[in-house]
Amino acid sequence: MVRITLIIVVLACIIGCGPSGEKPNILRIGHAGTGLYGYYPANSKEAFLNALQLEAEGVEIDIQMTKDSVLVVFHDQLLDGVTDGTGLISDHTWEEISQYRYDTYPFGRYRIRRVEEILQLPELQSKYTMWDVKTNVFDTVFIDRMARRIVSLIHQYGIQSKSYVELTSIRQFQVYRNLSSDLQIFAYLDWNQVKPFVTTFQLSGITISIDQLTETLVADMHSQQLKVCTFSLYNRKDHEKALELGVDIFQTDNLRDLSKIAN
């Protein structure tokens, strides 16, 4: 009986921990909370709390800015189609935005939140945040104003070591790096465009869709001392591919499945 029990324990370790007998060294991030297919609207406070209940080590938050420079957590530039409001978020004040609600069933009772509301959640303390900065890259005045607000908030809450800021242009790299020497910048841009600037702007990582990743690409990024973050992770196949490729950060839409193979 003792021998059978020992065999079962050994087999469980092999299956659960992989060939090395160790847990995968990855960072589990809830994409916009619990993802596009969660029980709550993406980027809602409830989605972030649910992600942390599902053992996420952090959350990805999409950042927009209002007309009066309030940072809000919302994916699209337009309110149309997702909320009962209309027009660009950047054309509305926070007082106006705060009145709107998600209007897609069954999300009607949930509202848009300020970034500060999310950062103040007790459950998020000591966790990671990935800031997906959404902005019109051609509006330099807006970019600069938004950058100052984001960097100011990160320093105000003292979360530089656990904040990754995802940027989509070379100019943004320059603006944010000039504002902060200790900011952790992730490039959300084609690797061939990013590679010449890794050292110049002291980039910390790159964010890229799982569909675009290859073993060679990941190795090249790692050779530049970059963390590799991937998204569009919806199922077991996506998670297993990311594990095989040696990805560092999983922005997943399916925390339940990831927990099954990464715990």
What's the level 1 CATH class?
Alpha Beta
- CATH homologous superfamily classification: Phosphatidylinositol (PI) phosphodiesterase
Broad structural category: alpha/beta
Fraction of residues in β-strands: 15-25%
What is CATH's topology name?
Answer: TIM Barrel
Query: What's the architecture in CATH terms?
Result: Alpha-Beta Barrel
Strand arrangement in the largest pleated sheet: 1-2-5-6-7-8-9-10
Helix content: 25-40%
Largest sheet: 8 strands, parallel, barrel
Give the rounded overall mean pLDDT: 91
Tell me the number of strands: 10
Categorize the overall geometry: globular
User: Radius of gyration from the CA trace?
Assistant: 20 Å
How do the SSEs run, as a string of H and E?
Answer: HEHEEHEHEHEHEHEHEHEH
Q: How would you describe the overall organization of this protein?
A:
The chain has one domain (24-262): Phosphatidylinositol (PI) phosphodiesterase (TIM Barrel), CATH 3.20.20.190. The model is unreliable at 4-20 (pLDDT under 50). The chain is an alpha/beta fold and 263 residues long. It has an 8-stranded parallel beta barrel, surrounded by 4 helices. It has 10 helices and 10 strands. The protein is globular.
